[in-house]
Amino acid sequence: MVIMEEAYNYLLNDLKIKYGDSVVAAVSGGPDSMALLSLLIRLKKALDIEVVCAHVNHNTGRPGQIKEQQFVEKFCRNNGVVFETMIIEDYGDDNFHNEAHTKRYNYFHKLVKQYNAKYLFTAHHGDDLMETILMRIVRGSTLRGYSGFSQVVNKGDYKIVRPLINLTKEEILEYNRKNKIPYAIDTSNQKDLYTRNRYRKYIVPEFKKEDKNVHNKFYKFSKTLIEYNNYIDKEVSKKIKSIYSNAVLDIDKFLKEEKVIQMKIIYSILESIYQDDLMLITDRHAEILYDVLHSTRANVKVHLPNNVQAIKSYNTLVLAPLKQTKKEYEIELIKFINLPNGKNIEVVDKSNATDNFICRLSKDEIKLPLHVRSRREGDKMNVKGMIGSKKINDIFIDSKIPMQEREIWPVVVDSNENIVWLPGLKKSKFDKQKDENYDIILKYY
Fold it and tell me: How far is CA 394 from each of CA 364, 378, 390, 408, 427, rounded to the nearest angstrom?
């Protein structure tokens, strides 16, 4: 295939890999990573380089994971490739995909250092880029986030390279068929439970019906956004040092800039804090910070993903890790909150849902602002449809909520400490029916 040969020539000629160099490749055992590994084996034969295969067993309980590991190990052994693997032993309370991503790349970084490698290769292709861009457009992101991912990312001592970025999934599968390259199939990639799978199965194919080479248009779109982002970054870098220094933002200086520069400063700060975890950030977070910085209130605190707290105090804003005692927290609910349990609560304009993941409130019956906090000893709620109150702990027991989840389960209260909602579990007497009068709708997801 001509386009696969272009990918090989890119590896051979453009990257300036020399005889005896070491490279690391992330290999799951699926069709994409096995195609990448086959190209690197060709390169190994041409330049006598050391190819290190980095395989991660995500240990999610999915059948076949050990067999996939053994399959990749055997393939490497038969082709003179160094095989390295790790098993993710446990996961915390964070978003699973984000935590798995972080653990993977920490492991890859360790191997790059261990083998003194110049490159870390991943098998991301054109369809992956389309999916990422579309997901971030729908979810909201930063300018750099909307670009998806780059073909080359300079990490200082090494580079992350995605040589298959111009190929489609079908082209990779065809290459594997013609060259009899074996691979494993991850059945979880077919489940509609995961957002990316839905984009892959239903949305991307519709774009391809319009233009079979649409992935190239997305790649061009991505590169254009990156170029514009880099230019704006240069302009912002001239100003940001005097506005944001040592994690402290000077609000008076910030407010003198045009809105486009203000927003880019906010995005730049978020990008510097979250880096590889940028997927956690949406445009909602940037808008919340923008509103806080323009607020007339002297002191404001807001909670951001990964336990980062933004604290406004008069003319300064500080972004710092949230200090928690025994997993206790309390967050003012403005528009949107990313919670310590990985879930979100958002103020929405409308919803047809009537389950426990939606709460409708009337401002006339509660005292604003609302807060979301962890449970406290003696917490009670007037449950909707019940006479009297019920202990929050009893609701947890009735709902069979594990003890470790109870510690960080969100409790929504008004400023009089009335519990107005136990998201996902129970509604209070303050909740309104769809046909009643209400002016606040909260969504838990």
Answer: 29, 11, 7, 16, 14
- The overall average pLDDT reported for the chain is 90
C-alpha pair distances (Å), 185 with each of 36, 92, 104, 123, 274: 16, 27, 19, 15, 32
Is the CB of residue 116 less than 8 Å from the CB of residue 22? yes
Q: What would the pLDDT profile of 419-439 be if each residue is shown by its tens digit?
A: 999 999 999 999 999 999 999
Compute the distance between CA of residue 432 and CA of residue 102 in angstroms, rounded to an integer. 41
The SS3 assignment for 152 reads: strand
User: What domains does the chain contain, in order, with CATH numbers?
Assistant: 2-220 (3.40.50.620), 246-323 (3.30.465.60), 332-444 (3.50.40.10)
Query: Helices marked H in 343-387 — which ranges?
Result: none
The values of phi and psi at residue 253, to 5°, are -70, -40
Contact 195, 188 (CB under 8 A): no
Tokens for 36, please give them: 């990448």
Alpha carbon 108 to chain centroid distance? 18
Provide the pairing of β-strand 419-422 with 426-427. antiparallel
Angle made by CA atoms 77, 83, 88, in degrees to the nearest 5:
135
Phi, then psi, of 399 in degrees rounded to 5:
-90, 0
For the record, the structure tokens of 66 come out as: 């050990």
Nearest Cα residue to 118 out of 44, 12, 21, 19: 21
Give tens-digit pLDDT for 247-271.
899 999 999 999 989 999 998 898 8
Angle 57-62-64 from CA coordinates, rounded to 5°: 70
**Both structure tokens of 334:** 């403005």
| Residue 270 backbone zone (phi > 0: left; psi -120 to 50: alpha; other: beta) | alpha
Please state, in angstroms and rounded to a whole number, the distance separating the CA atoms of residues 267 and 388. Answer: 47
Selected residue with higher pLDDT from 99 and 347: 347
User: From the CA atom positions of the chain, what is the Rg in Å?
Assistant: 25
Euclidean distance between CA atoms 3 and 8, whole angstroms: 9
pLDDT in tens, 275-292: 766 667 778 888 889 999
Which of 90-104, 213-227, 245-259, 324-338 shows the lowest mean pLDDT across its residues? 90-104
57 dihedral zone (left: phi>0; alpha: psi -120 to 50; beta): beta
Residues 6 or more apart in contact with residue 219 via CB below 8 angstroms: 126, 129, 165, 166
Cβ count within 10 A of residue 52: 23
**Reported confidence tier of residue 326, pLDDT bands at 50, 70, 90:** low
Rounded distance between C-alpha atoms, residue 47 and residue 353, angstroms? 61
pLDDT, mean of residues 347-367: 94
Per cent of the chain over pLDDT 90 is 67
